Structure formats: C-alpha cells, structure tokens
C-alpha cells in the first residue's frame, strides 16, 4: 500500500487518546498507482474462461460441508476447494488452564511488488509457525486500463489515493494470495481507494450505503479478476472469497462507526479499524469482534505507541518516509524493543492477544520490516505462543465461555493472573 495511515502516537503513559499525524496521511506514490476502479457487478453474468490453468487445490477428502469436488465459481476467478488447510481446531479452556498467547501480524494492502515483501514474509511465516492476516486492497487486482470500473464514494470515477498495480504485480499478487491461503493465512480486506480525511471523501465521512458500495466493489474486484484482467493462463484463487472474507481494516482507521453495521450485515466476524486501545482482551462491538491497534510501551520512556509500523515512523521521522540514515539503527532498535516489550507485558501477564499492523514498505531504509521480522523470529516458536490470523483468534474467542472472557477483560495487561480462579 502506498498510502500512509493516519495512525497515532500516544505521548503519555496511560493515556488512551491518540494524536493523529497529518490529516491526509498520504505518502508519495511509487509502486502501482492507484486511481480507482469499479468492479463488474457481482450479479452480472461473466464468461467462463477457456481452459483456465489448473487450480492449486489442496488434497482433501469430503467433509460434512464439502462433497470433495473442486468447483470453479463465477468467471473462474475463484474456486471452492474445500475447507482451508492448516487450520487449528479452537478448543474451550479447561478449568485452571492458561490461555495461549496469541500474536497477530497483519498486513495492509497485500501487494506483491518489486521488493517481493509479500512472498518474503509469507515464507518467513512458514518457517516460524506463524499464520497471518493479509488485508487485500481490491484495486491491486484491477488493471489501470479498467480504472473507471471503480466508483469510489464522494470521489470521481476511477480515482484513488494509492497506485494501481502493473500487470506483473497483479499476477504476482494473485500467486501470493493463492499460496498464502494454502499456507493457512487469512485474506481479509483493506477495501479499495484508500481515501482518508480531511473532508470531503475520507472513510470517516462515508454513510452506511457508501461503505456498502465500497465493500461490494472490493469483493467484486477479487471475484472478477479474470474478466477484468483478461488473464486466462492463471489458476483461480483456491477459495470462495464471498465466504472466506470475514474481516477487514478501514484505510487510515477511519469510519468504523458506519462501517460496523455494514460488516455485520455481510456476515463479518471482526473488524480491525479501531484507532487504538490498551492491551486488553477483545470485546464485541455491535455484534462484531473489535480488534484494535494497541498501545505498546516504549522502553526507557514514559510513552506508548500504537502497534503499527507507520505510527513508529511518525514518531521518529515525522511526515517523511525517508529520514536521517544516521538514525536508522536506533529507530529500528526502538521499534523492535517496543514490540517485544508489548509482547512480554502480556505473555507474562494477562495473556491478552497482541496485534501488530504492518505495510509492505521500505520506509526509512526498511527498518520496520527488519524489526517485525526479528519479532516474528523471536516470539512465534516460544512455548504457549500462537502466531495466528485474526480469523483464528475470533474462532478461539467464540469457543470460550463468555463468563471467562468477561473475567479476562478485567485484567490489566501486565497483571499476573490466578488462572485457577479465573478459568472455571
């Protein structure tokens, strides 16, 4: 994603409010330029592709909800290959059992660009027992030549605040989406045009109807990529996106109030658009799990930082993504140490899930990519740690006794718990 988020840096320990850096929260365009796109209508008939490439279907046997037959869907952009592989079975805590330490690494945009960061981190996840959530921007599957298919709320047809992907990037992104899903990762949505405030036009100003249009278009760009691109030699995505899509994150964390009812109506299980919260156990908001960015300690200071790479950048180099190289090492260490401090606080305390948001970007020399790589390697193989997707966390939470979850929410992040008393 080529647009920086309007995330916040908390300057005082214990303060839950956040200071938004920069109203437009945009960075210079470099990768595929995103100007808009309106997908072909999901209800319109789509031509069946001639002899599409073979589907990378997992080898499975029939289940109570799947007959064992791979089925192409719509125009052949997606397919039903059965239940997603490598998914853990959520189990209710036994009396006195300590909860696992969930850590969710999520990625906004999910474009495979020339830097190959999507594929690099996907492979890193496999190597470190980590499954993640990739929030796909729908425009990254729409050719620039078809930009006018996108009709963004409050903006001109075919406009956007991110770059459209090149043909090569679209093909590479489709490949990584296939492999990521087969690896057990989640494909969520980051919607489309990445419009942010100030007024008019950011997601914070959109109505329920406008969010519905934005979401419908995001789904359509994924389910109709074959028609929109004309690619006939690529295999379909091995999942039904209309069923697999159960959560998302709004650009710049704007508009959750009007977005939540739309997501609930679409059957979403969670939303990750909240601008920030303490490291506490999640609760539902309007019937949808609320998975916010979190306030993590900055070791050696009295401040905390929201758990997203852009927020660390904002506190270190301000509005530029190309700061002073002499400070890169110190900034990288500060970011990594903050992530790890947030992890240790809950790992040895309340066991509340840790949420870390990222972008496939080389901001400030790539230091944020290195920091999160180090954290993945450091924590994901530790005892009782599950580096999981947001969907997997939602699955686990839904399997728990609501009374136990209520008790967990009362814990302070670093508070050691008497699990024999809390989990009954």
UniProtKB/TrEMBL annotation:
It comes from the Bacteria. Residues 1-18 form the signal peptide. The keyword Metal-binding does not apply. Residues 20-101 are annotated as: Disordered. The keyword Signal applies. Residues 30-65 have a biased composition (Low complexity). Keywords: Signal. Residues 88-97 have a biased composition (Basic and acidic residues). InterPro entries: CE4, Glyco_hydro/deAcase_b/a-brl. This is Lipoprotein. It comes from Kitasatospora purpeofusca.
């Amino acid at each position: 994603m080529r647009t920086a988020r309007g995330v916040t840096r908390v300057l005082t320990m214990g303060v839950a409010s956040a200071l938004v850096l920069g109203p437009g929260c945009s960075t210079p365009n470099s990768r595929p330029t995103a100007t808009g796109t309106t997908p072909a209508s999901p209800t319109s008939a789509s031509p069946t592709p001639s002899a599409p490439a073979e589907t990378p279907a997992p080898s499975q046997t029939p289940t109570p909800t799947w007959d064992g037959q791979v089925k192409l869907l719509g125009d052949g952009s997606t397919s039903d290959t059965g239940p997603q592989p490598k998914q853990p079975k959520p189990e209710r805590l036994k009396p006195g059992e300590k909860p696992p330490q969930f850590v969710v690494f999520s990625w906004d945009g999910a474009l495979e660009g020339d830097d190959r960061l999507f594929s690099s981190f996907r492979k890193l996840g496999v190597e470190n027992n980590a499954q993640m959530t990739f929030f796909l921007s729908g425009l990254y599957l729409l050719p620039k030549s078809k930009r006018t298919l996108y009709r963004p709320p409050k903006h001109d047809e075919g406009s956007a605040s991110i770059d459209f992907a090149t043909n090569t990037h679209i093909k590479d992104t489709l490949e990584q989406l296939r492999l990521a899903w087969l690896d057990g990762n989640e494909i969520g949505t980051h919607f489309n045009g990445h419009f942010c405030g100030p007024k008019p036009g950011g997601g914070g100003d959109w109505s329920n109807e406008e969010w519905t249009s934005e979401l419908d278009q995001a789904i359509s760009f994924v389910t109709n990529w074959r028609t929109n691109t004309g690619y006939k030699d690529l295999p379909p995505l091995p999942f039904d996106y209309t069923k697999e899509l159960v959560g998302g994150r709004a650009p710049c964390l704007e508009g959750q109030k009007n977005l939540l009812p739309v997501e609930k109506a679409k059957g979403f299980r969670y939303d990750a658009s909240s601008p920030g919260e303490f490291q506490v156990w999640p609760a539902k908001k309007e019937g949808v799990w609320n998975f916010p960015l979190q306030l993590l300690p900055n070791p050696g200071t009295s401040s905390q930082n929201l758990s997203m790479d852009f927020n660390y950048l904002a506190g270190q180099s301000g509005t530029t993504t190309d700061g002073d190289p002499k400070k890169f090492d110190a900034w990288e260490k500060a970011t990594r140490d903050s992530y790890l401090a947030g992890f240790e606080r809950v790992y040895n305390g309340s066991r509340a899930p840790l949420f870390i948001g990222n972008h496939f970007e080389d901001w400030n020399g790539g230091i944020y990519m290195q920091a999160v790589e180090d954290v993945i390697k450091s924590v994901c193989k530790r005892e009782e740690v599950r580096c999981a997707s947001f969907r997997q966390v939602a699955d686990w939470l839904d399997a728990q006794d609501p009374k136990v979850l209520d008790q967990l929410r009362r814990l302070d992040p670093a508070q050691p718990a008497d699990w024999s008393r809390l989990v009954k």
